[in-house]
TrEMBL record, chain A:
Superkingdom: Eukaryota
GO cellular component: eukaryotic 43S preinitiation complex; eukaryotic 48S preinitiation complex; eukaryotic translation initiation factor 3 complex
Main location: cytoplasm
Oligomeric and partner information: Component of the eukaryotic translation initiation factor 3 (eIF-3) complex.
Function summary: RNA-binding component of the eukaryotic translation initiation factor 3 (eIF-3) complex, which is involved in protein synthesis of a specialized repertoire of mRNAs and, together with other initiation factors, stimulates binding of mRNA and methionyl-tRNAi to the 40S ribosome. The eIF-3 complex specifically targets and initiates translation of a subset of mRNAs involved in cell proliferation. This subunit can bind 18S rRNA.
Pfam families: eIF3g, RRM_1
UniProt keyword terms in alphabetical order: Cytoplasm, Initiation factor, Protein biosynthesis, RNA-binding
Renumbered residue ranges of the record's region Disordered: 1-26, 153-207
GO molecular function: RNA binding; translation initiation factor activity
Name of the protein in its database record: Eukaryotic translation initiation factor 3 subunit G
GO biological process: formation of cytoplasmic translation initiation complex
Family according to the record: Belongs to the eIF-3 subunit G family.
Domain RRM: 205-283
UniProtKB/TrEMBL annotation, chain B:
Name this protein carries in UniProt: Eukaryotic translation initiation factor 3 subunit I
Primary location group: cytoplasm
GO terms for MF: RNA binding; translation initiation factor activity
Gene name tied to this protein: LOC112281122
PANTHER family for the chain: EUKARYOTIC TRANSLATION INITIATION FACTOR 3 SUBUNIT I
Naturally occurring in which organism (per UniProt): Physcomitrium patens (Spreading-leaved earth moss)
Keywords noted in UniProt: Cytoplasm, Initiation factor, Protein biosynthesis, Repeat, WD repeat
Amino acid sequence: MGGIRDFRWGDAAEEDDGIEGVLPPTQVIGPDEKGIKIIIEWRKDDEGKRTKVTKTVRVKKQVKKLNPAAIRRRSLKKFGDALSQNASENRTVVSTEEIFLERTRPAGAKQEAEKGADLALLGNASLIVCRTCGKKGDHWTSKCPFKELAASKNFPGAGEKPPTDEDVPGMSGGAGGKGSYVPPSMRGAKGNEGESMKRPGRDDNSIRVTNLSEDTREQDLQELFRPFGNISRIYVAFDRETGLSRGFAFINFVNRDDAIRAINKLDGYGYDNLILRVEWATPRADRS
Amino acid sequence: MRPILLKGHERPLTFLKYNRDGDLLFSCAKDHTPTVWYASNGERLGTYKGHNGAVWCCDVSRDSTRLVTSSADQTVKLWDCETGVQLHSFNFDAPARAVSFAEGDKMVVITTDPFMEQQSAIHVKRIESDRSLQSSEDVLTITGPQGRINRAMWGPLNKTIISAGEDATIRIWDAETGKLLKESDPETGHQKVITAMAKSADGSHFITGSHDKSAKLWDIRTLQMLKTYTTERPVNAAAISPLLDHVVIGGGQEASQVTMTSTRAGKFEAKFFHKIFEEEIGGVKGHFGPINALVFNPDGRSFSSGGEDGYVRVHFFDSDYYHIKV
């Protein structure tokens, strides 16, 4: 095998169809004692230009020991059911799923990972914002785990703990005291009973209905207030000891506008021989 | 790793065994036909047809020419490994449970279940190299343990026979006289049925798995308990890695309970533990039924699991498996 063969470009044009005839043959040098092999190739691209490609390769011999018995067994004839096996049977399948040896993390690492997940949740832009703790996307206001803490910590009205704390209707209904509603957010940490009231009850669109007759039930109020809009909660205060209605109830509307309309319509409305009083449950400056 | 799935059995797997060279994998299932596969690519080489009941256990001779299988059809059959021809059938009066070749393949130990007012028993048979001389006579019969003897194997130099089963006790018997030599301590030993038993590569210790949700490592001579690996599910299978200081444990809830819960709750994982530190390394998922059989390839670079779901999964370890730090 000599070097590059002498030829004229005119020859190339004539023998265009026989590329092999034009391009010098591939040359292989080596492998030498270091296992290095040089391969020289000639190529012709679309435009007819010739390119010389020189590849340097290291040849390495890897010794893999095989058991002669195992090699012999590789060519064994099939027997039993394997004989009649047709191609469609698919006895052997390589899993399409990548399976890993899932490492068991030490306890400490696990906790950290969970923390991270929590933070990731926080980072999510979500419509859910807790009005108690201000956390975004974690939970609804009503499900806030910091409900109790909120009163003493970060809720705006936390400082002014009302003195009527103990008489919170629906919480400790038995006392039958002043009966003024104190929103859960205003209840101090003292009101441990609040813990039991995890149901939705913290909506702003809450109205108070007083001067109800004793035999008014939730059902009746539902009928009375439903026409104004969607109701999320109805709470009728009952005396825990006597089981009688204490004559007032709270109704939460989904929409504030519905609540306003209900107040306008039903305040002073005659119901069961009594004149209802309907007002905002939490009197605030901006609402009066 | 992408395991190879072998779908040769229609019923739950009961036992898996590699030959000594690690190129063949034998699988036993409740569907009467033990099957042999090429371990490297999962190709089915053949099946051994002749049993008429669930096949509980098998063993292959050191030179991979003979296979012995034990079945619920009250027989233990000896096969030519490479052609699937039945060479001999040992008949019993009770379902045969465990079977194991002695070192040198001259003898075989067989256990039979309690059946029709018969006690469970351990039988030792001689295997003749000349087939015409093969007899079905017992060389030795041992009775005594209550309940099924789920596993039996030979101790060092064939001097002892180790058995374990439903009475949760591991026993070492003299292989010559049949005398009981040692019994596992009920305090430190298993509390429930022992379902699995496997020797280490050098035969100096062995692992047992039990429904008491633990696997234990024992010294084969002194029957001293060395290690305990606890998990949260009953253990059906256990194996010791011949390459690294790992053991693998498989199991899952009772088969009858499987449909009651999701696969996630079933914990049908093969769990890897560090043999010495008893620390859990990790788990390999995939089966959708309890794992009934686990075995390492003798080179330690792959392992196979057989499940109640009828699949055998052959796993070849990724390179990072060899660098796991505990």
